[in-house]
Amino acid sequence: MTSTPQTSRRNLLRGAALTAGVAGLPFASLATRSEGATAASAVFSDAGYGPLLPAIDRATGLQLISLPRGFEYLSYGWTNDLMSDGTPTPSAHDGMGAYRLGDPVHIVRNHERNPSAAFTQPAYNPLGGGGTSTIVFDPEAGAFTESWGSLGGTVRNCAGGVTPWGTWLTCEETFSEAGGMRHGYVFEVPPTGKGNPAPYKAMGRFNHEAAAIDPATGIVYETEDRGDACMYRFVPTTPGKLADGGRLQALAIGAVGVDTRAAGSGTAFGSVHWVDIDEPDPANDTVRREAQGKGAAIFSRLEGAWYGNGRIYVITTDGGPARRGPGLRARPGHRRADRALRLAERRGAQRARQHVREPARRPGAL
To answer: Which residues, including other chains, have CB under 8 Å from residue 59's CB and lie 6 or more apart?
Structure first.
């Protein structure tokens, strides 16, 4: 995703005083999917909780979002608010992971910031403005209790992924250099204390978006946010210990390269397999070029990824004939040939599905 201008609580409160409602606030867009779209209360009213209604933030008294009746919320960690460690909260909040540790909930939060002075230590690069902050919420008290900078010196930390062993993988959505240091890596941050400022270079240097992990194998599935992206997986040498290294691979469909970006309803592809990446940490942005040269499939801007129900789920931004972005659903290691990988148009578009068949033998499994 792309960074947006920072919004501090002070600026938002000032804006609220100058408007008759919340229509002029940056958060008003949360009430609808896009300009001129159907109201969110109508779109999501079938979720089982009832329609969305205007709701007041317990922290500021502002109407920032809408929620079903009976739900409430409070905001915390606005840009430039001082954290518990005395560090101003960085701007450009993005992907995050939540962890229940006893009673408290720890949240590790990305900051998709461009090169600038590192906002906290440890820092991978003193000229990297991105990173993560960690906040703690007490559900019994209904209050946030602590916050600190947990990783600094990175660039454009967009999404990432929660690991089965209880850490957060924060991913740089960039392929760049700052002060002569390379960026475009994955870093690991625990929900307590500080993160590891050493990048996992074996996981690839490219325009990362998100990561999802199969808990049965420890394999990490990685997405790339490019118009001609590839889907990757990292097979760790030691499951659960990514710092030990491993093998980066890209998804291939059939014997020759397949471009899925405009795939229409009913399209059937060949078998799924993985091709090794010989140079996961290149000087130039060539990981996907190497992959596609070996027959890897091409996708349009792969975005979020998640593991659940024994499957890996991935969303694209704008693929498919309707440019609405199909979702991918995969069963890691599943043996049935017709249910390994499936693409489906998002809700609201034609419910098209393209089946990608996987070899029945385990070595070729997803």
So the answer is: 74, 75, 76
Residue 276 is given by DSSP the state: E
DSSP letter at 362? G
Is residue 75 within 8 A of residue 57, CB to CB? The reply is yes
Alpha-carbon torsion (137, 143, 145, 149), positive or negative: positive
Q: What is the pTM of this model?
A: 0.83
User: pLDDT per residue over 28-48, tens digit each?
Assistant: 222 322 233 333 444 444 468
What is the SS3 assignment for 140? coil
Peptide bond into 122 cis (omega under 30): yes
Using an 8 Å Cβ cutoff, are 113 and 130 in contact? yes
The helix (H) or strand (E) run that includes residue 288 is helix 287-293
Q: What is the mean pLDDT of the chain?
A: 82
pLDDT tens string 206-256: 999 999 999 999 999 999 999 999 999 999 999 999 999 999 999 998 877
Contact at 8 Å (CB) between 158 and 110?
yes
Tokens of 219: 């394999």
- As beta bridge partners, residue 271 has 357
Report pLDDT for 348.
Answer: 38
Phi–psi pair at 31, nearest 5 degrees: -75, -20
| Pairwise CA distance, residues 223 & 229, whole Å | 8
> What would the mean pLDDT of 140-167 be, rounded to a whole number?
97
Name every residue whose Cβ is closer than 8 Å to that of residue 100 and which is 6 or more positions away in sequence: none
Q: What is the C-alpha to C-alpha distance for residues 234 and 200, in angstroms, rounded to an integer?
A: 11
Helix (H) / strand (E) element for 103: namely none
CA angle 347, 348, 349 (to 5 degrees): 95
Whether the per-residue pLDDT at 282 is higher than 90: the answer is yes
pLDDT score at 47? 62
Residue 306's SS3 state is strand
Given a contact cutoff of 8 angstroms between Cβ atoms, the answer to whether 111 and 136 are in contact is no
- Looking up tokens 């454009």 gives 156
304 HSE (CA, 13 A, CB side): 12
